[in-house]
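stage 2 :: seqdesign
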């Protein structure tokens, strides 16, 4: 068996290069074969070295949502999602630019590129960042890794209520502005 060559993709800052292995080989299920059951505590609980990242297809959010790398996400999702999970989500979506059908993510390399150490189990900051993406509906577990949203919805009202008044007012202004834009796109979506 030959080793799989790595493919590099640009990191979102500093022009550094991040090694992203090519997407996995896909095969159809054999007659009568059942898909693997999801792991109850997520793929990082079993501590693999790599997980598969595939896009979450959601026609409604894909049409009206926001790119995770946009100013909207930085301004309004950051206080809810947290900085580590926000950067992780951005990094995961970056991979779809080069591999739209999905790719294998090296966990240790990704953690290190975010300034974190990778340790096995669910208690590390890196694993907690994945958990936050799942908890807020931006990713979900599958048997081999994660399915990740390519675009994210508007921040939910329950999260807006926890934000400072200034940020809530800014979000209301953003909603009013986006309602008047011809394509429903604000300057905050072009990040």
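stage 2 :: out
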């Amino acid at each position: 068996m030959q080793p799989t060559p790595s493919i590099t993709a640009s990191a979102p800052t500093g022009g550094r290069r991040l090694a992203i292995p090519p997407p996995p080989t896909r095969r159809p299920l054999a007659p009568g074969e059942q898909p693997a059951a999801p792991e109850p505590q997520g793929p990082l609980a079993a501590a693999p070295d790599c997980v598969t990242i595939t896009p979450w297809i959601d026609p409604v959010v894909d049409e009206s949502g926001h790119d995770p790398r946009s100013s909207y996400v930085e301004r309004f999702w950051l206080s809810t999602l947290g900085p580590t999970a926000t950067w992780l989500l951005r990094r995961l979506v970056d991979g779809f630019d080069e591999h739209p059908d999905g790719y294998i993510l090296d966990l240790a390399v990704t953690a290190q590129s975010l300034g974190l150490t990778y340790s096995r189990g669910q208690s590390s900051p890196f694993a907690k960042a994945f958990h936050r993406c799942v908890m807020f509906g931006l990713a979900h577990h599958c048997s081999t890794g994660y399915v990740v949203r390519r675009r994210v919805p508007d921040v939910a009202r329950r999260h807006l209520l926890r934000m400072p008044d200034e940020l809530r007012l800014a979000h209301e202004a953003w909603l009013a502005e986006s309602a008047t834009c011809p394509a429903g796109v604000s300057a905050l979506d072009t990040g």
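stage 3 :: structure notes
- The chain has one domain: 41-189.
- The chain is about 35% helix and 15% strand.
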